[in-house]
Amino acid sequence: MAFRLCRLRGISKRLQDVFKMQSRLTTTATLEGGKSKAKMWFAFGALAAGGLATGYILQPTVSAEELELHPPHYPWVHSGLLSSLDHASIRRGYEVYRQVCAACHSMDQLAYRHLVGVAYTEDEMKAIALEAQIEDGPDDDGNMFTRPGKLSDGFPKPYPNEQAARAANLGAYPPDLSLITLARHGGEDYIFSILTGYTDPPAGVDIKDDLYFHPYFPGQSIAMAPALYNEIIEYEDGTPATISQMAKDVCTFLKWAAEPEHDERKRMGLKVMLILGLLTFASYYYKRHKWSVLKSRKIVYRPSPHS
């Protein structure tokens, strides 16, 4: 009886071992099947993505309206590492802005006093400010009134609000020009290209009414009409007022308006580079001659002759 019980226990143990082995084999097969399926789906996804990318690259149809020219880089005088702004050009650029651009574009960040010592004397700017009529008030009766401008006044706005600006420009809102060279990719290169890049639309490009074709403007349709024409103004210094000259001068003025610290920043950078150069030389001297004693010393054990 005892022998039979021992035999049954041995058979039961063997069956349990067989079941465990079968379970392990089943689990391994399942994992291998999952990995193979994952590899299959990954390969299928890679092939599909490659096919879509190839089809997109080889697509032969390109719409002319989707093309957009990037403005070239012009050799500005102030683009050098140690070059300053041309202040005579700043003065001429302000003339272009005041007589042409100010009819539609504001410059909220500038006041008349900012040009004193930059392109005009104080008396000259006072005379220019007096020509402007500034709305002020209210007075003792609560009414607004107009007065001649003064140095502390900001440049007058062409429109009282955004709605009036859009109504006068067929729904387009003329941007403020105070920081325009920093707000547009390409800076003054982009502004110069906008002012001088008007051309007739190529074949196959339809432009809506009241819009103008412009290859440098996003969408190639711009609501602003060409603002500059040859001799549209007369410079005080007698410089010929060509389109390119006026565009160059107003871009220089807008560059100064966005970065009035331009010249001072470069002067400070030159001083910093000189000081850093002297400090670098002094640091090398100190390291070479002061620390060399510590870095080259040796510790030698010399036994005492009396030991």
TrEMBL record:
Compartments reported by the entry: Mitochondrion inner membrane
Report keywords, A-Z.
Answer: Electron transport, Heme, Iron, Membrane, Metal-binding, Mitochondrion, Mitochondrion inner membrane, Respiratory chain, Transmembrane, Transmembrane helix, Transport
Give one Pfam family: Cytochrom_C1
Q: Which InterPro entries is this protein grouped with?
A: Cyt_c-like_dom (IPR009056), Cyt_c-like_dom_sf (IPR036909), Cyt_c1 (IPR002326), Cyt_c1_TM_anchor_C (IPR021157)
Note on how the cofactor is bound? Binds 1 heme c group covalently per subunit.
Q: Name the cofactor(s).
A: heme c
* GO BP annotations, alphabetical order: mitochondrial electron transport, ubiquinol to cytochrome c
- Superkingdom of this entry's organism? Eukaryota
Q: Which PROSITE patterns match?
A: CYTC
> Domain Cytochrome c, which positions?
88-240
One example of the protein's molecular function in GO is: electron transfer activity
List the Gene3D superfamilies hit by this protein, alphabetically. Answer: Cytochrome c-like domain, Cytochrome c1, transmembrane anchor, C-terminal
What are the binding positions for heme c in this chain? Answer: 101, 104-105, 224
Task: Provide one Gene Ontology cellular component.
Answer: mitochondrial inner membrane
Task: Give the quaternary structure.
Answer: Component of the ubiquinol-cytochrome c oxidoreductase (cytochrome b-c1 complex, complex III, CIII), a multisubunit enzyme composed of 11 subunits. The complex is composed of 3 respiratory subunits cytochrome b, cytochrome c1 and Rieske protein UQCRFS1, 2 core protein subunits UQCRC1/QCR1 and UQCRC2/QCR2, and 6 low-molecular weight protein subunits UQCRH/QCR6, UQCRB/QCR7, UQCRQ/QCR8, UQCR10/QCR9, UQCR11/QCR10 and subunit 9, the cleavage product of Rieske protein UQCRFS1.
State the similarity comment.
Answer: Belongs to the cytochrome c family.
**Name the record gives this protein:** Cytochrome c1, heme protein, mitochondrial
Organism of origin? Desmophyllum pertusum
Which gene name belongs to this protein?
A: CYC1
